[in-house]
Amino acid sequence: MMKFRFRRQGTDPQREKIKQELFAFNKTVEHGFPHQPSALAFDPRLQLMAIGTKSGAIKIYGAPGVEFTGLHKDITAVTQIHFLPGQGRLLSLLDDNTIHLWELVVGPPREVGGTKKEGGVCLKQVDSYTLPGRPGIESCSATRVTVLFLLKSCDLLCIGTEGGGVYVVELPRLVLKENQTLLQDQVTQSLPDDYRCGKSLGPVESLQEHPQQPGKILIGYSRGLVVLWDLSARHADQLFLGKQQLESLVWERSGGLFVSSHNDGGYAVWPVTSGNTITHQPVSSTIPYGPFPCKAINKILWRTSQTGSPVLLYSGGMPRASYGDRHCLTIQQDKEHVTLDFTSRVIDFFTIHNLEPDKEFDDPLALVVLLEEELVVIDLQTPGWPTLPTPYLAPLHSSAITCSCHISSVPPKLWERLINAGRAQRTRQQTHMSWPICGGKNLAPPPKQQELLLTGHEDGTVRFWDASGVALTPLYKLGTANCFHTDCDEPHDSSNDHDLQQEDEWPPFRKVGCFDPYSDDPRLGIQKISLCKYSNKLVVAGTAGQVIVLALNDEPSDHSVDVSVVDLLQDREGFTWKGHDRLEPRLKPAPFPPGFQPQVLVQCMPPASVTAVTLHTEWNVIAFGTSHGFGLFDYHRRNTVLARCTLHPNDSLAMEGPLSRVKSLKKSLRQSFRRIRKSRVSGKKRALPTPTSKVHEANAALAEQEEVAPVQRRIEPRSADDSLSGVVRCLCFADTFLRDGTHHGPTLWAGTNSGSVYAYALEVPGVGSGRAFERGGASESSACVEALLGKEIQLMHRAPVVSISVLDGRGKPLPHPYEASQDLAIAPDMTNAHSVLIASEEQLKVFSLPKVSAKTKFKLTAHEGCRVRKVALVLFSSAAQEDYSEHTLVCLTNLGDMHLFTIPGLRPQVRYDCIRKEDISGIASCLFTKNGQGFYLISPSEYERFSLSAKVLTEPLCSVQLDRPLHPTATSDGTSMHPQANGTHRKMAGRAEGQTEEPPCSLSSPIQETPLDSPLSCADLTLDTTGELTVEDVRDFLTTVDEAENNLRNMKEEEGRSTGILIN
Amino acid sequence: SLFHHRTTFFLPLIIDFGMLDFAFEAEYRRFGLKKNGYVGFQEFYQLLQSIHHIHGVDVLLEYADIHGDLLPINNDENFQKAFASANPVLRIIVTIKGLVLTGLRTGGSGSIHSKNKSSLMIGPPQNFRQISSIIDVDILPESHRRVRLHKYGSNKPLGFYIRDGVSIRVTPQGVEKVPGVFISRLVKSGLAESTGLLAVNDEILEVNGIDVAGKSLDQVTDMMVANSHNLIVTVKPANQRNNVVPRGSKNSMGHSGSVGSGGSIGSALSHDSQSPASHSNPITASSSIAEGDSYEEDDDGDVILENDCLPTYRSHPGTNSNSSTLNRDSPHQGQHSSIPQSVSMPNSLAAALSHSSTMMSHHNGGSAHSVGSSQESMKEDGNVITL
């Protein structure tokens, strides 16, 4: 009772000030590749590249570390972006036919943790414009914008429309110059009758300004007509009577000719000679991949070069029947011809070339191709046109991310070795070109420490990323597939054959890019990662129960990997594993490149997905858990110390692997598809904008809900025999007091899905007070690690145990292996009583040790109605006081909010909204760093980086040298928008809530807040490429209503399964 | 003058014999029975009388069920139930009829008892376990009802479902529809249905003192599940005709049902309501629930099983029990179930007992021998068993 009052009070001003200095929530930067890119632009003067996305975001990239992000008010696809070169301004065209003007401006200074910070440069929308409809013409498609084109002078914008009109708008004020408008009938008048033949010219497909004569633009119409139009004289200089449906136009540098690309897969070269008003035929017309029908060439570029023939670059044009499904871009120069074969759709591309007017040639330097899933840059100066590795926009999802792990303060030695190992992997690329997009200046101070982000992927690889700064760059890639025999084992040295093959092949394909969503064998998928940065030992565990211990080696090695099989069922009767088989280990010696090389493979049986793994390098042991039990393995002596089955006798689901097909699943799938269909219909209804009061909206939604059978939830306590109750959720090693209060020693803790905690006392030879000398001369080598069950705790509420960590005598988390012994951390307090913090989905609880009795607790679910998904112990440093820091428990719930608690007191500190609660994969992928930052996936390809710390922030801080002052210009309508500093995904109000405040309740919510578990919401979820979510995860959506009711609680628990919890 | 016997059975082994606990003036015996030996209540009753040498004395038999609640044994049916729940220990308390254990139950007169004696043997109200009650009648609006469901000890499911719905509120602006959470279904013969205090379409306003306004169906579900062992829901009943009217000091209605004797429902007066200071203020009312001991009833119900054979560092290796070395030799077997264990009982005896019996049966499996052979495994210190 007293405790409760104390919590409610919570308004001690002194404490509030400290809290402000410690905690602050910010979404700082997005790592990875923007999801669903839809537009690309380049500013050759500022050397900045812009990418627009289908969700209305604009991201600008320059030199590594230079990033600006803007977000349109409406979530509408950005269809085009155009820079106003050198001005730091850009225009965007959205799918809803609106044009927006953006500017780089200096943001307002911010206050973080009591200290003022200079506002960085950020991207801000300053104006928007919609083309007025033509009087008398109702159809809005006539004024639908098809092309935006900026004149080189940057003061005029030409807008081509669906109706064939060309409008001119003054910049930067965005005012229509009505007298300049060119409607189609004006053009048709001057056409010869036989060409006109009464048909419309179609939409404007392309607008290009004459490279030498400003004010003259080429207008290309869909039907094939190209007009050279003099804007000032307002008459057609020349007409080119093309007969093929037009796709794009490009000028040659001199202005003597232009090239058109067409729907039939061909391109044509047209001469531009003054005096000749009507040209009937091009000088040449080619269908490069003919003669059979080809797909359209969507875009063509023609770049002259000093070395001779021009470089021709075009996308598409593939033979329809045989390669119609390929995503290709062709580079051609003389006899050199390469067909770049991408794994995803080409969105747009540009070349970086010489723009100086006094230079005679374009001399293209590089080709930048934006694909749906990655960015590819080709070095056009090096023979063979090799690809250039990108320093940012890394395709994180080249194979779906299945788990992740963060290592802070990486020792320099390990860092260097990783970089070397990574460099060795990239030797085949010979390009020495430096990154060509290098605009802006990164003002962020160099990172104080190196940070590693490890991502586990569905194809069995672990990728190491440099996460120290704003740009997430790849360091090293580790493959685990070579430990096993897989179906797709192919001879390694096929590269020579490959080249031979290519010579015969037409078109001359070259595979480019690394996005490869198709996994060879889903069992290879990585589920858990644990790395010891001091001993350079790594443990990765996968979908088929494989646990691999690896060690870092700078030399290549040829060796065989020891295999140990651990039976976690322990002769438990009545269970037959119906899931996938184990992977077949490779028993013969195999070559392993420099880097992490496997030493031991521990195979769990049954080969269910590994759900928890932990490593203690000082004791040379690993612990691992699956849905059946957990095991302890001494990798030094290659000895299984312990295997413990955690299955409940009634648990039947545990025996179905994620890949098994059960009869009932088919039925439920059918049901769920029906439901999805239904929900799509109702979803559209909801999308209609209703600008009425919130209550009205809620009422409408509720009325709609009443029509459908309501979703029901069963209220029942968790029982012991809930299925999947045996899933091991967390494992933890600790040197603490389990036997008695005076002697500490190694312990292993395991927590399960049904609220059971097992604590084992370990005997590790040479470790533990007193034990070593007692054994005396006993031969150390023969001594084995031993484990004895010390305690079993059954949490009464039976909620899944999310994390276990031991706190020392001062209530601080125990240091990592080697940290204390190598003086890298303050030695733990072993004189006062330790305690263990057990976080279940429903409660946080601290128990005393060695006698396990509850000291403090916080019932999160009972109070807030939310359940714990992720938990981490984080060290927060004060932004104001140099030497002040606090260990804090950070807790992410199923509603996507962060709760911060003191330890060991478990007093709530602040609460932040962070992730949308519908974003299951976002919540499931969230991980925390040791110093108060975190990451979560906002799309299959992007990590959002956030910070809970007022002191530790990794955010873009950059400047750009512009011709104009960097201060915002007065906008035409005076409505200044919020500077959208960061976050292409709509920010939830980054509002901090003290515990004293009541959570907000709004009536607007029921529409958006369709319960996540409700089958109605599954249509909106993008679960496809996040490999982390398995059938089990979405079974909520797949089951019938009745089944859903029954399974609900279990399945909910399942959602949260996965990814590394940073408590070790 | 207070005199009662306490008997512990071990099934199927005879283990230990009595001790006299002077502090409680109680006799304490322990003996074993064949599980299929006694089929009838009368037979068993006579056996007890003979064991305790109390022939001709009318006694009340009560047993501690798996949840630690005292339940009567007075007919064949509940005797069978009691027997079935022995796993492996059945604790029986033998009290002389007419004598009441102070501190255990209050009030109660023999009148009901004697009335029923002629027909079916139904115990007095104090022998029934409370499974639900209406509380805080005096501080809630008449249209609302605060119902407490004690899931504890009942093997019945809570047995209800909730759904989203529309609630009609009268506001200064007129009638407004707002989202609400409602009871959508009651499971037949579930706890919720058998109390008769909750009904389909009742609107749920609070869960254990926390307002559910603005919370999603899933949040409310989670809150209820988290509180399911001692669930207090404030509802606005769909049927407003049976509302409880506050009447002076007797402002709480109780509902009791004996689970052991087949779900017969009686009604009894329950405990007094809480702080009278908190009239008409729902927030204090809710916090009073939250702070009250009732709310903390499930506190620390976690069960901790300790392995007593963990060798302490100072202890001589030779004194370590055999089982630990045995385990060391066979790490691959991993199952350390054969280690004698003691059960530490947290504050709530009820919960501990419930789990200890299940846990012990679970872990010991068929290896009752090891339990039997170890003296220390059955430590029952006085502060734990304080009936």
TrEMBL record, chain A:
One GO molecular-function annotation for this sequence?
myosin II binding
Can you supply a Gene Ontology BP term from the record?
A: regulation of establishment or maintenance of cell polarity
Keywords, in A-Z order: Exocytosis, Repeat, WD repeat
Q: Where are the WD repeats?
A: 452-466
Write out the coiled-coil annotation as residue ranges: none
Q: What InterPro entries has UniProt attached to this entry?
A: Lethal2_giant, LLGL2, WD40/YVTN_repeat-like_dom_sf, WD40_repeat_CS, WD40_repeat_dom_sf, WD40_rpt
Which residues lie in Polar residues bias regions?
Answer: 969-983
The family this protein is said to belong to: Belongs to the WD repeat L(2)GL family.
Per its record, how is this protein called by name? Answer: LLGL scribble cell polarity complex component 1
Which organism is this entry from?
Answer: Fundulus heteroclitus
Question: Which lineage?
Answer: Eukaryota, Metazoa, Chordata, Craniata, Vertebrata
TrEMBL record, chain B:
Q: Where in the numbering of this chain does the PDZ domain appear?
A: 146-239
User: Which Gene Ontology CC terms are recorded?
Assistant: apical plasma membrane; bicellular tight junction; cell cortex; nucleus
Where does the record place it?
Cell junction, Tight junction; Cell membrane; Cytoplasm
Is Translocase a UniProt keyword of this protein? no
Entries under Pfam families matching the protein: PB1, PDZ
InterPro entries this protein is in?
Answer: PAR6_homolog, PB1-like, PB1_dom, PDZ, PDZ_sf
Basic and acidic residues composition bias: residue spans: 377-387
Question: Where is the stretch described as Disordered?
Answer: 237-387
* Record CDD domains: PDZ_Par6-like
Keywords carried by this UniProt record: Cell cycle, Cell division, Cell junction, Cell membrane, Cytoplasm, Membrane, Tight junction
Look up keyword Membrane and say if it applies: yes
Q: Polar residues: which segments have biased composition?
A: 270-289, 317-347
Which stretches does UniProt call biased (Acidic residues)? 293-305
**Gene Ontology annotations of biological process type:** cell division; centrosome cycle; establishment or maintenance of cell polarity; regulation of cellular localization
The PB1 domain covers: 17-97
Concerning its family, UniProt says: Belongs to the PAR6 family.
This chain's protein is named Par-6 family cell polarity regulator alpha
What organism is listed for this UniProt entry? Fundulus heteroclitus
